[in-house]
Amino acid sequence: MSTDTKERPDVTTDRSTDDDTPKFFHYVKKDKIAESAVMGTHVVALCGEVFPVTRSAKPGSPVCPDCKKIYDGLPKGD
Fold it and tell me: Residues 6 or more apart from 17 whose CB is under 8 A from it?
């Protein structure tokens, strides 16, 4: 019989990864955000990326540079 101690490898049961965290937040039509968050439908960002809304941006969050460029080029509303 062996008296060697076997160490258990570090394992986490948390299945979330860094991939779940968006690299950028995108500009999306305001009326589509709530619908997507509740119904799980996909939205289309100004840059063309399609995804379901799962998080809301906080002040200072990184913004998609393509969305920002398009948004800044849109005519200003009232």
Answer: none
